[in-house]
Specification:
about 60 residues, alpha+beta, 2 helices, about 35% helix, extended, Anaerobic ribonucleoside-triphosphate reductase, ribonucleoside-triphosphate reductase (thioredoxin) activity, NrdD
């Protein structure tokens, strides 16, 4: 198991120039904003949020 992590780490390190930055957006007061534009306090609040999925009512 330890060797798998090492192989993954080596793969990630070898492909740094091929990776692109991933922007995370969240919905704030009816519109979408990138999380990177938040101040420190809002970034902390975003990390504490939990993701939930509503169950369908008619299944």
């Amino acid at each position: 198991m330890n060797t798998t992590k090492t192989k993954e780490a080596l793969l990630l390190d070898s492909n740094t120039e091929k990776r692109t930055k991933c922007l995370v957006y969240t919905r704030v007061m009816g519109y979408h904003r990138p999380v990177e534009s938040f101040n420190i306090g809002k970034k902390g609040e975003h990390k504490q949020r939990t993701l939930f999925v509503e169950k369908g009512c008619c299944n």
